[in-house]
Amino acid sequence: MKENRTLMQYFEWYLKPENKLWKKVEINAKYLNAIGITDIWLPPAYKAAGGKYDAGYAVYDLYDLGEFDQKGSIETKYGSKDEYLQAIKELHKNNIQVYADIVLNHKIGADEAETVYASQEQNNNRNVDTTLPKKIVAWTIYNFPGRNNKYSDFKWNYEHFNGTDWDESGRKNGIFRFSGKHWDKNVDKENGNYDYLMGADIDFNNPEVVEELKKWGKWYLEFTGVDAFRLDAVKHIKSGFMADWIMSMRKEKEIDCVGEYWSKDLNALKNYITMTNSTIPLFDVPLHYNLYQASVSSGNYDMSKILENTLVKEMPSLAVTFVDNHDTEPGQALYSFVQDWFKPLAYSIILLRKDGLPCVFYGDYYGIPSQKVLPMNERLERLIKARKYFAYGEQIDYFDNFNIIAWVRTGDEEHIDSGLVAIMSDGPGGGKTINVGQRLANTVFYDYTGNIKEDVYVDHEGNGIFYCNGGSVSIWVKKGNIYS
Predict the structure, then answer these.
(1) Alpha carbon distance 223, 83 (integer Å)
(2) Does residue 190 carry a catalytic annotation?
(3) Is 461 one of the catalytic residues?
C-alpha cells in the first residue's frame, strides 16, 4: 500500500550542544513514524570550524562525525559519531528514511595558511578584477592532524580551491580569486557569477578534488547507512559536477536527494534542474515566498494565485515544498518567517495536496525557545495525520475566490475512509458549494481541525456546502472514520 511521504527537517539553527539532538531523534523515532513522518532530514553531522558550537555549515572535516578531538571538541553540536549512527539505526527500525545534510561547496577553519597569488574581485560582479595578481596569505591547508589519516589521507591545499575571502598578511576581507583559477561556469548568475559563497571555495575542476569527494560520498553512504542527501548551496556549485556526483553515488546505492537552490526566480530553478538532467529535485523557494507574502498581507493577498510561479505547479515531481527552515527563522540571513496565524494554512497547502514532497520544520513543530517561537506540534501533528490517513485520490481545485480557496481529495479504494475537503481563508470566513465526487456522496463530514463544530451533509450527487472561519483552515473528513 503506497502511503504519502512526509519529510521532517529535524533541527533549527539555535539548538545547543546540551540539546543532544542525535539522542532526541533516536528516542522520538517510533513516535514520528506513528504520526506519519516517513523521512527525516538531519543536520550536517561532521566537524565544522566552530566545533560543538557550530551548526555544521562551516565545513572543516567531512570524515569527523564526532569522533576526533578537533576544533575544541570531540562531539559535534548534535552529539558523537556513535550517537549519530545509533539514531540512524533507530530511524530505520521505524521505517523512516534518513537524509544527510552535506555541504560540498567550501571549507572553513584551515590548519595552516600559505602564500598564494590572487586577484581581488568586485563584490557585486565577480567577473571583474579590482587588482592585479599579488601575494596574499590564505588559510587553505587542511591536514586534519587530530584524525591522523583515519578513513582518508587526503590533504587539502590552495590548488584544491578557486579562492578565499581573507588575506591574513593584510588582515583584509575581500573576494580573492587565485591566479590560474577561474570561477566555475554553470552556477547562479547573481553577482555576475555566484560560484564564490564563503571560506575557501572548492575547485570542482580539479580532478583530485572530484575523486576525493566521490570517495568520501561512497564512504559516507557505507559508513552511516543514510538513504538520501540534502545538498547544500547547489546554486554555487557547477551543475555538471553535482549531476555527475549524484550519478556516481547511485552506482553504490539507489539514493534520493534534494538540492537547496535559494532563489525566488522559478526560471533559475527550472534551468538548474534541466542542467542536472532532472537528477536533483529542489526546495520550492518561490512557494515559500508566496506563503510568506500571504502571511504578511493582512488578508489582501490573492489566495487564488498562491501557487503561481512555483516549482510545485510547474515541475511537481521535482519539488520539495516547505513553509520555513533554519535559514528563514528569526535572526537568520534569509529571515522571512511565515506568520503564526497563517502557518496552519501554509502547512495544509503543502501537506494535503497531491504534488511535491512536503517538509515539516522542526522549529515550527517544537518551537524555537531562543526566539520566543512557540511550538505548534499539536496542530501540525493533526495535519500530518490528515495527510497520512485522508489525502489520497483525485484532486479538484476551487481556487476561484480572492480570499477563500478549497480543494477536494476524492479518496481511493486502498485507504479506508480516505478523502477530504480543505478550505481556507486569509480574510473573512465563509463557505463554498463543493462536489466531492460519487465515492463520498451521501456522507456526513466533520472538521478534523476542530475549528468548526457543525457537521456538513453531502447529498446523493456529492454536493455540500463547506465552511471555514476567517484567517483559518478547516479540513473536512468523513464522520465516523476509523481514525477519529
Answers:
(1) 13
(2) no
(3) no
Q: How far apart are CA 243 and CA 274, in angstroms?
A: 10
- Which residues in the chain land under pLDDT 70? 1
Of the CATH numbers 2.70.70.10, 2.60.40.1180, 3.40.50.2300, 1.20.140.10, which one belongs to the domain with range 395-478? Answer: 2.60.40.1180
pLDDT at 170: 87
> What's the DSSP call for residue 364?
H
Taking CA 127 as the corner, what is the angle to CA 121 and CA 130, rounded to the nearest 5 degrees? 35
> How far is 484 from 472, CA to CA, in rounded Å?
21
pLDDT at 3 (0 to 100): 84
Bridge partner list, 397? 407
Q: Where are the domains of the chain?
A: 7-104+207-390, 107-202, 395-478
Architecture of domain 107-202: Beta Barrel (2.40)
Topology annotation, domain 7-104+207-390 = TIM Barrel (3.20.20)
The pTM assigned to this predicted structure is 0.97
All three cell numbers of 131, joined, read 587588482
Extract the runs of DSSP E, i.e. beta strands, from 79-111.
Answer: 97-102, 106-107
pLDDT score of 1: 52
Question: Which three-class secondary structure string do you get for 172-185?
Answer: EEEEEEECCCCCCC
Task: Say how far residue 400 (Cα) sits from the centre of its chain.
Answer: 31
Indicate which residue of 184, 260, 355, 364 is catalytic. 260
User: Which residue among 61, 232, 314, 364 is the active-site one?
Assistant: 232
Q: Are 304 and 402 in contact (CB under 8 A)?
A: yes
